[in-house]
Amino acid sequence: MIISAAASPTGIIGRGRDRSLLLNQVLLGSVVLLAAILVVIFDAVADGILLILGVTVVFVATGAAFVLPWNRFPALAMLVLPLADIGAIVLMRGAAPDAALGLMWAFPAIWIASAFGGWGALLGSGLITIAYWAQNLAAPAQTINPGTFLFPVMIAGLATIAAIGSRRAMAQRTLLDKQSLFLQRSVDRARRQEDLVTEVLQAVDFGVIRLTPDGSMVVTNEAHGRLQRARADTSRAYAADGISPLDDEDLPLARARRGEVFENALVWHGDPGDESRRALRSTARRLVDKDLSDAGMVIVTLDVTAEELALRARADLIASVSHELRTPLTSITGYVELALDDPTLSPVSRRSLEVVERNAGRLLDIVADLLTASAASHQGVELTLRTVPTDLSAVVEAAVEAALPRAQERRVQIDTSAVESVHAIADPHRMRQVVDNLLSNAIKYNHVGGRVEVGLTGDASHVWLAVGDNGPGIAESELPRLFERFFRSGLVRNSTTHGSGLGLAISREIVRAHGGDITVRTVLHEGAMFIVRLPALTTREGKRS
Predict the structure, then answer these.
(1) Of 239, 251, 247, 245, whose CA–CA distance to 301 is shortest?
(2) Cα 129 versus chain centre, distance
(3) DSSP letters along 398-464, please?
(4) What are phi and psi of 530, to 5 degrees?
(5) How many CA atoms, within 13 angstroms, populate the side-chain half-sphere of residue 289?
(6) 540-544 and 294-303 as β-strands: parallel, antiparallel, unpaired?
(7) First vs last Cα of the chain: how many Å apart?
């Protein structure tokens, strides 16, 4: 088989033409040597000088193929070698007319056709046909027979096949070159993106870890190493409260390797009181391939020691100040109540003392909210519940009764017709706080002469408490922050109604501590309804009026 170089449609030989020429000459030289030996063995030599001359021309051409840098010459220059081969085969046929040495013309015909395309096939087969006919007609006693025409046709067919094959090879090589170039560009682009991601990962101050599905770590950044070194300097790990020890299997990395997905998992590294203690917050996300198969996990870890210490200091400060304020305020309200019990008190003095009593009571409510918020803070002691079988309808009834004086001051009507008798496992004191906060807000922020509706119901698995009003409602833009601590809506801030902004935050924390949740439905200028859901077993005994 002759291996040719690809030729362009214009006849310019592509890359590898010198290698193709060399291989063609080596093959032809080998065949010529074998043919010469066989001719000598079978004593078919008619003219030894012509045989030696033909073999010499082929070997000189083969040597030239080895020595000369053909890739530096014009493409047409390489025609010298196959033309010399054609002439050499003419000499060898003349030296041994009956040895069928003309078949060796197939080598130069195929190479010229494969290297130069269609016009090369025409040139090669045309020259060989002219040489074949001229040599046959010049021979004595040579007659015209079918072989006179079949041999040139065979050479032309071989040349045509070689030209077609070369064209196809050239098209395939062009396609492969384009695909290779596209692939190289894609690889370069992917490498640039990888370098960019690596630079970004090395620049950020949070640790990033990539885990394979089997838990092996394949990607990490410098920040992660720095956080790991900080961890190594501490003795052991603690939970978010800072005092509950954690086992190694409860650490974020071990949890992620088990396939757990979590967010903002806070771990303290170092014993309580240790100045080198560090707080690390980790988030784990699952990665999915294009075929939706598991691609492992990515873990992001951030050092939040400064933020956590600041939050803890704020909570401690709030708790300390609240405790310090509570004692004198309790004393003030006690003495004011004693003064108000004096029957000889003048009307002017009584009104002044009532103002003092109301404001002192308001300050006590704010202090109570601050103490509850401090107790429920995730930086301090977790919110403590003492759950017992509780008649929630009695809790609601007591809260409504306590809220009636304030409601009567604002001429707000409270409707409890939708309250059913529901028993649940709950902390009655904490649930009273929730109902008090919701009722207080519904009355305080309602219109004068408005209406508040309270509902309570349950089934075998849930309890629902609803407190609604027909007040100004809440803007949709403020709903995401409604349960944040110290948040007060724009309508409230622009009014004379006072509040600490802690009631809803405390209520949600209490409800969530029970395993439930609290939501709100509101339309601006049409009122709001807060719905508390508790996952508790309940029984229903009918409505209370």
Answers:
(1) 251
(2) 69
(3) HHHHHHHHHHHHTT-EEEEEEEEEEEEEE-HHHHHHHHHHHHHHHHHTSPTT-EEEEEEEE-SS-EE
(4) -100, 130
(5) 7
(6) unpaired
(7) 105
Per-residue model confidence as pLDDT tens digits over 109-120: 999 998 888 898
Amino acid at 244: S
Smallest CA-to-CA distance from 210 within 303, 287, 290, 294 is with: 287
> Strand 262-269 to strand 237-238: parallel, antiparallel, or no bridges (unpaired)?
antiparallel
Per residue in 60-83, pLDDT tens?
A: 999 998 988 887 888 888 899 999
Task: Give yes or no for a contact between 108 and 132, defined as CB atoms under 8 angstroms apart.
Answer: no
Q: Is 55 left (phi over 0), alpha (psi -120 to 50) or beta?
A: alpha
pLDDT digits (tens, 9 = 90+) for 390-449: 899 999 998 898 888 889 988 999 999 999 999 888 888 889 889 988 998 899 888 899
What pLDDT, on a 0 to 100 scale, did the predictor assign at position 158? 92
Q: List, in order, residues 6 or more apart from 233 with CB less than 8 Å away.
A: 276
Output phi, psi for 401, to 5 deg: -60, -40
